[in-house]
């Protein structure tokens, strides 16, 4: 009685007249902390799982709303020729004066042709299902068969479609073609004035072996942002715009979206350019063309398959 079991160190010892914690006590303390950390880890894993489920739920709700907008858009109010020219010359006026119905359609048009979730389900390297056509909108052509530009497509005003460079691999991939001279502008948050938007002109230039992507803000003339990819050109814009507004948003950017290249209508126009069929890595997409400003199931709303 009162003696320590064999092979078990004493709980305390005395050194210089003061007790110290033994090795056994240290072991017990480490074991206790390990159990606490393990419990905390399990709780964090459960919280992470709940967050993932909530994110998926929000994504499903967003997709559902966008689908409703796509199927229930209404007629856009017509404007006079002079008013249309005024809107094209001053894109900020066009952006601020858009009717609600047009804003809804712009949201729909900003959806990429193939979502990342569907691409993930297909797996890497697998082509999109050919039976699933993509919705695009009709754009007028002139007597020579060229598209009449500039034209408004969603938030973008397409100024030039450019020229297809088919003999340099970096100027296209399986989803996008990067024509030299392609140019578009769109409104976005200013990088220098937190209270205003401005117009950004996005251009693709000939950079030799690789295309050069340029973004120019209207309120910062002579100070373009140049990068080797569309995403690289737009990411600094989003980062700076968020920074001056103290917004804790993600600075991630989809370059093709901000350049307008992911717009189905724009993709259709680009793949109809001369020499586009010579881009060996690009997969030609089938589109269902819908007349703008029509509804119902009458003759004016029939889908023309290209």
Blueprint of the fold:
Layout: E1 12-15, E2 18-21, H1 23-71, H2 81-89, H3 91-96, H4 100-109, H5 116-122, E3 134-137, E4 151-153, E5 156-160, E6 183-189, E7 197-205, E8 212-217, E9 225-227, H6 230-244, H7 255-259, H8 264-271, E10 287-290, E11 304-305
Parallel strand pairs: 3-10
Antiparallel strand pairs: 1-2, 4-5, 5-6, 6-7, 7-8, 8-9, 10-11
Helix pairs in contact: 1-4
Description:
The structure is a single chain. This protein has 306 residues and is of the alpha+beta class. Helix content is 36%, strand content 17%. It folds into two domains: 20-72; 74-305, 2-Layer Sandwich (Double Stranded RNA Binding Domain). The strands form three sheets. It has a six-stranded antiparallel sheet. The longest helix is centred in the first third of the chain and has 49 residues, at 23-71. The model is unreliable at 73-82, 98-122, 127-131 and 294-306 (pLDDT under 50). Residues 27-61 form a coiled coil. It is found in: Nucleus.
H/E order of the elements? Answer: EEHHHHHEEEEEEEHHHEE
Overall radius of gyration:
29 Å
| CA(first)-CA(last) distance | 95 Å
How much helicity do the residues have? Answer: 25-40%
Report the average pLDDT across residues.
76
| Number of domain units | 2
Structural class comes to alpha+beta
Q: What would you say the CATH architecture of the largest domain is?
A: 2-Layer Sandwich
| Count of strand segments | 11
Q: Within the CATH hierarchy, at the fold level, what is the topology of the largest domain? A: Double Stranded RNA Binding Domain
Strand content: 15-25%
State the major sheet.
Answer: 6 strands, antiparallel
Number of helices: 8
- The largest beta-sheet arranges its strands as 4-5-6-7-8-9
């Amino acid at each position: 009685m009162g003696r320590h079991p064999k092979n078990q160190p004493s709980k305390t010892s005395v050194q210089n007249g003061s007790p110290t914690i033994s090795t056994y006590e240290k072991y017990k303390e480490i074991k206790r902390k390990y159990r606490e950390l393990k419990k905390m880890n399990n709780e964090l894993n459960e919280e992470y799982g709940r967050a993932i489920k909530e994110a998926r739920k929000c994504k499903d709700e967003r997709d559902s709303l966008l689908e409703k907008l796509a199927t229930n858009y209404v007629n856009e109010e017509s404007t006079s020729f002079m008013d249309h020219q005024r809107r094209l010359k001053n894109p900020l006026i066009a952006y601020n004066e858009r009717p609600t119905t047009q804003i809804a359609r712009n949201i729909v048009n900003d959806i990429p042709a193939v979502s990342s979730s569907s691409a993930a389900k297909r797996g890497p390297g697998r082509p999109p299902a050919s039976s699933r056509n993509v919705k695009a909108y009709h754009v007028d052509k002139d007597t020579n068969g060229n598209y009449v530009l500039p034209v408004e497509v969603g938030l973008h005003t397409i100024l030039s479609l450019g020229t297809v460079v088919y003999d340099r691999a970096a100027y296209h991939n399986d989803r996008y073609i990067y024509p030299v001279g392609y140019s578009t502008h769109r409104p976005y948050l200013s990088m220098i004035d937190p209270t205003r938007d401005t117009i950004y002109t996005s251009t693709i230039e000939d950079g030799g072996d690789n295309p050069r992507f340029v973004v120019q803000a209207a309120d910062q003339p002579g100070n373009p942002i140049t990068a080797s990819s569309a995403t690289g050109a737009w990411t600094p814009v989003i980062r700076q715009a968020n920074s001056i507004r103290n917004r804790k948003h993600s600075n991630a950017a989809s370059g093709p979206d901000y350049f307008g290249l992911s717009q189905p209508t724009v993709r259709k126009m680009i793949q109809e350019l001369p020499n586009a069929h010579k881009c060996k890595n690009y997969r030609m997409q089938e589109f269902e063309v819908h007349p703008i400003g029509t509804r119902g199931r009458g003759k004016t709303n029939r889908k023309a398959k290209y």
